Amino acid sequence: MRRGLISWSREEMPVAVLDQRLARLQAAMRAENLGAVLAYTSFAQPAAVHWITNFTPYWSEALLVMLPEGAPVLLASLTKRVHTWIREVSHIGEVVMAPRLGPGAVRLLAEKIGADARIGVIGLDSLPWPVGEPLSAAYPDRVVDAGPMFAALRQPADAEERALAVHAAAIGRAALDAAPAHARQASELTAAIEAAARLAGAEEVLQRIVPDLAGPAALLRMEGDAALGARHAVEVSLAYKGAWVRVTRSIADGPAPASWAAAQAWFDATVAGMGEVRDGQLPIAAPGQLVQWSLEASVGLHPLTVVMAQGRPATVALPAGSLAVFSAQLALEDGHWLCAAPLVMGA
Questions:
Q1: What whole-number distance in Å separates Cα of residue 214 and Cα of residue 231?
Q2: What's phi and psi for 15, nearest 5 deg?
Q3: Which terminus of the chain, N or C, has less C-beta within 10 A?
Q4: d(CA 309, CA 291)
């Protein structure tokens, strides 16, 4: 649940950085001969619009319209009473109230571009049909997927985004440190972690737990409570000023088994060499059995998208300097072990 104040810190995210991002996107639009590029945003898919404008919705949905020149326009399904807040926290031009985003986009584009122009959509395959159908009807065969173009621009991360991610990761680690040492119930962990992360400035906190690493090691979203085994794991995904990270830690009630030290050493060495990974094959053999691993990054509408995983080639090439999250699960002789941490590719 998104709670707390979503604000814009111009010291942490200067206007000039957002201008540079938009300029790069508009240059790519002109190179691709696109009359406009649209990006959808919602509670679950905020990443692309936030990266361009700093805007993240609390609820509802919106559509960002970008032309080859000038400031972007935000079509918002929210009432006008929140337009002032939207302008305070985002770097955009006009905010237009559009209860129905699809027809609203068609009307705006009719004023701004020619009837034969090509329109790119970031995340076209996931665009809600009430938004996509009017666009397809108005511009048959001229609505194209701008996702690959955007993904090529999205990474590597600029210095400001890396700084936000470093701060977010510190919040996540400190929140895990705040977990009680001898917790017996999952709720004891989740409450302490949530409180620590929120008080440190996290705008959103999502947790999943493996209650007992001696049994099945699936990460569970807690819809109630669960008893904790002597060894358990907690995954925390959180956002700070729109920068998302994920940290996962295996926790022992008492001394950690010796196998965990070897697992952590493997994990750290793998993270350090992640820039050399190709075709879904990690270069360093894992202790025990490597059950699964994944590499995630922000390359589209979602805060984190799997771009590489065990046995699967990369779907997006991440250049040096890209922000990513590496997650892994090992089956050791004395039980499962899970870990996840953010990283900068090649650093």
A1: 7
A2: -55, -40
A3: N
A4: 11
